[in-house]
Amino acid sequence: MRLQLSFIALLLIASISTSVIWKNLATARDGDDAATIAVFTALPAAFVSILLLCRIVLRALAARHGEGN
Known about the structure:
Layout (H helix, E strand, L loop, with lengths): L1 H28 L3 H32 L5
Helix pairs in contact: 1-2
């Protein structure tokens, strides 16, 4: 249950931060300071949450195949 909640929370964080990045990327390229701050703030959150999601999926697959940690 805890793993499912973590997965859902990380998926939500990854989705929101990725949408913030895509929404503000064009204006950040044009030199808007607020959009640049939004992109550089959301980028680490998206990166870390996607990495943690991959870790959860890989552990679940390993446990399914009997290689569990």
